[in-house]
Amino acid sequence: MPSTVILWFRRDLRLDDNPALQAALIDCDRLVPVYVHDPDSEAPWAPGAASRWWLHGSLASMDQALQTFGTGLLIARGDALAELRRIVAATGATRIHWNRLYDPTTRDRDGRIKQALRADGLRAESHNASLLFEPWEIATGTGEPYRVFTAFWRRCGARLSDVGPLPAPTTLPPPPESPDSLPLENLALLPRIPWDTGLRETWTPGETAALEQARAFVQGRIQGYASARDLPALAGTSALSSHLHFGEIGPRRVLAMVREQWDDPTADPVETFVREIGWREFAHHLIYHYPHTTDEPLDRRFAALPWREEDADRLLRAWQRGETGIPLVDAGMRQLWHTGWMHNRVRMVVASFLTKNLRLPWQAGARWFWDTLVDADLAANSLGWQWSAGCGADAAPYFRIFNPVLQGERFDKSGAYVRRWCPELARLPDKYIHQPWTAPSALLEHAGIRLGRDYPAPIVDLKASREAALAAYEVVKAAGR
Ligand SMILES: Cc1cc2nc3c(=O)[nH]c(=O)nc-3n(C[C@H](O)[C@H](O)[C@H](O)COP(=O)(O)OP(=O)(O)OC[C@H]3O[C@@H](n4cnc5c(N)ncnc54)[C@H](O)[C@@H]3O)c2cc1C
């Protein structure tokens, strides 16, 4: 009897450094690589529109890679357990392997599936492809999860040299007689109304592109990363976030590439970059240990924060559309809409603006990002929003309210980023590019701008809204007493 093994792909869409694949290959005569589309089981965090777009490309690329090995991806749709059972019955598989996910909805689902398949008599095993360390392996001296990044990363650092990637396979066993795969198009992941031009122009999903992107970054741009990473007009960062989210490349491979290229791991650009991979790791650590933080503040005092009630819908819409009248905020929101990605510095600015100047709940911002980011990741997004709102682990203190004008003048000095995404402001001189409302009217006229007609007047006064936010914070402080 040939030994038939199922490899259940999820957000680990790669052949390189794939522990589930390597485990599946042991004593395997027939391999069934499977993807089950089951968004209902991920509710309320089923992939958003931009993520679905990426997923389509990533699955196509995975299928193509498998076909070069004489096999292919068996795509199914429906309840994951029922579909896996159907494939087990049709193929006679006796083992199934997959790589773990750490967010609350998929974790519960996967636990139930593992139990059920084992009860059916199958060997079902899960592995770690997406993290450097399991969230339960890193703990404080008293066995508690970390809530402060520096201490967490110091603990990881001591063990960093132990982790390394697994190689990609050189051959794969053939598939058995299997049920037909659904055509990828049947998953309807691509938009019916084609709003995705900007995404197509900007990104190439898939493992090959991920490895190329990482290699190019590690061999080149990483040198200037420490300073360029804060300048949104430059392509100074790795742009690996979606590739990492979908598991087209793993953090162990990224780290290995860095090590191969750079002898000195403490060299400034290297350390700064690897530390960001550490933040990704920290985000997963937190979501694993504090699963409620997808919707509720980690710092419970913030449940008492009074959010704005009047005019909330209109202000949220203006923020989403990049029509707040604050150029750096609008540029960021338009970059997000057009490309499905936003520079980290600007993510912090737009999040601070939403939660503090507009006093709208961080959950509303997180939801918008969830639907529009190609790298939408429950762990990183929840951490990023809670950090910005001041209520998360190791968060920016609530009273630290980014001033988007000063942020623009510091990190987008020449206004190149704002000019790119808000072209109606392009003719303004640098001095006014981040605060057009302070420009003399003759100058505005000369630049072809009438505020309120060609570009919005600010929807809030930055100074007054800052003071209102600080006043609201008093309630949180009182709740903590
Ligand atoms: C409000 C807010 C929401 C965010 N939502 C997400 C999200 O949904 N998905 C996501 O991947 N990142 C999110 N981030 C973190 C960060 O903005 C992105 O990871 C980064 O901009 C991606 O660009 P890059 O790949 O060029 O990053 P690089 O600077 O090249 O960093 C390398 C990698 O490190 C990881 N990383 C970097 N910064 C962070 C961080 N602060 N937290 C966690 N991981 C990090 C990412 O995987 C990234 O690809 C959010 C940040 C904020 C402030």
From TrEMBL:
Enzyme class: lyase
Its job: Involved in repair of UV radiation-induced DNA damage. Catalyzes the light-dependent monomerization (300-600 nm) of cyclobutyl pyrimidine dimers (in cis-syn configuration), which are formed between adjacent bases on the same DNA strand upon exposure to ultraviolet radiation.
Organism: Thiocapsa marina 5811
Site keyed Electron transfer via tryptophanyl radical: positions: W307, W362, W385
UniProt record, GO biological process: photoreactive repair; response to light stimulus
Cofactor(s) this protein cannot do without: FAD; (6R)-5,10-methylene-5,6,7,8-tetrahydrofolate
Keyword Cell membrane: no
Domain Photolyase/cryptochrome alpha/beta: 3-132
Family classification: Belongs to the DNA photolyase class-1 family.
Enzyme Commission designation: 4.1.99.3
Source taxon at top rank: Bacteria
Catalysed reactions, semicolon-separated: cyclobutadipyrimidine (in DNA) = 2 pyrimidine residues (in DNA)
Keywords carried by this UniProt record: Chromophore, FAD, Flavoprotein, Lyase
Protein name as it appears in the record: Deoxyribodipyrimidine photo-lyase
Residues binding FAD: Y225, T237, S238, A239, L240, S241, F273, D375, A376, D377
Signal peptide: none
GO molecular function list: deoxyribodipyrimidine photo-lyase activity; DNA binding; FAD binding
Co-factor binding comment: Binds 1 FAD per subunit.
